[in-house]
Design a protein that fits this description.
By secondary structure, this protein is an alpha/beta fold. It is built from 8 helices and 39 strands. The strands form 7 sheets. The chain has a 21-stranded mixed β-sheet that branches. The longest helix has 34 residues. Keywords: Coiled coil.
Length: 547
């Protein structure tokens, strides 16, 4: 049988002559493989092409052990790899591979033998579409280049699908200053607290829009290289905020409006509009105690012995003396607080004051003051004494997140205690919520059983009342489960707090992280105290104010 020189065949085909390092010979006594290791070793692709070429030739009963040995130990060799047989003349072929997600198609052009048929570009397109079903995103320029240059044996990206585009997420537009709702102290350009211009609350009118919900968009469909449409991913919808008193939601649930003239604020995560009462002067014998379902604004002082109770905010432009203040929102004392060891202020939100002296303070939010002296302060959030004089001297201060002050304690050794990570009220509430949820689950199960029992005699009005009760129980259970989740997340976030000292902390100050007590052994400056497992450690002050 005539010996066939494959390199000569390539040259006759008009393709670039490349010494791939291997040749097949069809002889009278069999088929032989010749390898030139100097060429094969220089290029792993040549080795791959050699194996691919042998497979394409469809040898009958090849000596796989011989081929394997030649491939494993490449050296100058010519070995018989099959018995005598007619040569299969190869046509020019396309080999196409699809990615797992069918978003990319890769093409390899395989060379023909002498006498083999060549593919036209139109043939190639037909093979792509009919055999491999590739109909979208074909790179025509790359296809032309492959055929013009006869780029045999190399794998090229020939088609690319279009990924589906995610729509824009929904968002909320607020028409009031919701970030600073709650009477936060503002700071000037030098970072100093401005107690004279504390942010108060915005007045709104009946029917005024408070929040608008911008709906998410649907996005753009994608398509893979096989022409299959990929569904667009819709953006995530933004949920409307929870609402409290005196607000209404539009029928399409995209807008929140005020239902009265009043002041808008956020109470327990709920947008609320409350009426307000204003006392133009002092709270004294001419005014008496005040209890009001809304905000209370006092232009003067609150004298000792009086009580102010509000479901909203209490804003005092003057001093608060040894009085009792109870707020369902925030307490702002622009003139400061002098408790004389008899006063008490409690708020569901934040408490802010120019100074706090000999007062019992409890806030479910944060406590901010220019100075705190000989007071008992409990905050579920943080205690910030970094503005004004920034002195925290004497008493007991507890915070769920952190305590920050310019100076803590005194060189006179006044006993000062700092407690960090205390969320007693939240933990107590969590302990209450869990059995409430369990009890509701039990009752809901019993009601469902009664309603679904075919032998039950419950019918008519009694059945309707039972269905209504069941619906209310399910809603209450859902609300409690949400409250439980929020409590757990809050407790988790505030598990480990810090004490930040911007200037000096004095010897003898006691810092408690849970049950761990650390007594400051010497005066220290610009430092942060934190808990690491069972130890209290220090580092250079790393306080970053919350925005």
């Amino acid at each position: 049988m005539e010996k066939i020189d494959m390199e000569k065949r390539q040259e006759e085909l008009g393709a670039p002559v490349k010494n791939n390092g291997y040749r097949l010979y069809y002889r009278e006594d069999g088929v032989y493989l010749a390898i030139d290791p100097s060429a094969v070793n220089q290029n792993e692709m040549n080795l791959h092409r050699m194996i691919q070429y042998i497979k394409r030739k469809k040898l009958e009963n090849p000596y796989f052990d011989v081929i394997s040995e030649m491939v494993s130990n490449i050296r100058h060799a010519e070995e018989k790899i099959a018995e005598t047989q007619d040569e299969v003349i190869l046509d020019e072929e396309l080999c196409v591979e699809l990615s797992a997600d069918q978003m990319q198609a890769y093409l390899t052009l395989l060379p023909p033998d002498i006498g083999g048929k060549k593919l036209s570009r139109e043939d190639a397109k037909a093979v792509l579409e009919q055999k491999y079903h590739v109909s979208y995103g074909v790179d025509e320029d790359k296809l032309n280049e492959i055929f013009d240059r006869k780029l045999y044996g190399e794998k090229f990206l020939i088609a690319t699908g279009r990924e589906p585009e995610r729509g824009e997420d929904g968002s909320l537009e607020y028409y009031f200053n919701h970030k600073n709702s709650g009477g936060k102290i503002t700071y000037d350009e030098k970072g100093r607290a401005d107690f004279k211009n504390m942010l108060t609350f915005e007045k709104v009118t009946d029917g005024q829009i408070l929040v608008k919900r911008i709906l998410a968009t649907h996005g753009v469909e994608g398509i893979n290289v096989c022409g299959k449409t990929l569904p667009a991913m819709k953006g995530k919808e933004a949920a409307l905020p929870k609402v409290g008193k005196n607000v209404r939601i539009s029928k399409d649930k995209t807008e929140i409006f005020s239902a009265i003239d009043g002041e808008v604020t956020i109470r327990g995560g709920r947008i609320t509009v409350l009426p307000n009462v204003t006392i133009e002067g002092d709270v004294d014998m001419s005014v008496g105690n005040i209890e009001f379902d809304g905000d209370i604004v006092i232009k003067g002082n609150v004298n000792q012995g009086f009580m102010i109770k509000s479901s909203g905010d209490i804003i005092v432009h003057g001093f608060v003396e040894a009085a009792t203040l109870e707020s369902g929102g925030n307490i702002i004392a622009k003139g400061g607080i002098k408790g004389a060891d008899r006063g008490e202020a409690t708020a569901k939100g934040n408490i802010s004051a120019l100074f706090i002296e000999r007062m019992k303070i409890t806030a479910e939010g944060n406590v901010t003051a220019g100075t705190i002296v000989n007071s008992t302060v409990v905050s579920e959030g943080y205690v910030d004494v970094s503005g004004g004089r920034g002195r925290l001297i004497g008493g007991k201060v507890s915070a769920g997140k952190y305590v920050v002050a310019k100076r803590i304690g005194s060189d006179a050794g006044i006993q000062t205690e700092i407690h960090i990570g205390m969320l007693a009220q939240k933990r107590r509430r969590l302990e209450e919520v869990e059995p409430e949820i369990n009890a509701l689950s039990t009752n809901i199960g019993r009601m469902n059983l009664a309603l679904n029992n075919q032998n039950s005699n419950i019918a008519g009005k009694a059945r309707l009342e039972l269905v209504i009760s069941l619906s209310k129980m399910k809603e209450e259970k859902k609300r409690l489960e949400q409250e439980k989740t929020e409590l757990e997340e809050l407790i988790k976030e505030t598990k480990d707090g810090n004490v930040h000292v911007l200037e000096t902390i004095y010897k003898g100050v006691k810092i408690f992280f849970g049950k761990i007590c650390y007594i400051v052994p010497y005066d220290n400056e610009y430092v942060t105290y934190y808990k690491d497992k069972k130890d209290v450690l220090t580092a250079a002050c790393r306080f970053i104010p919350e925005k």
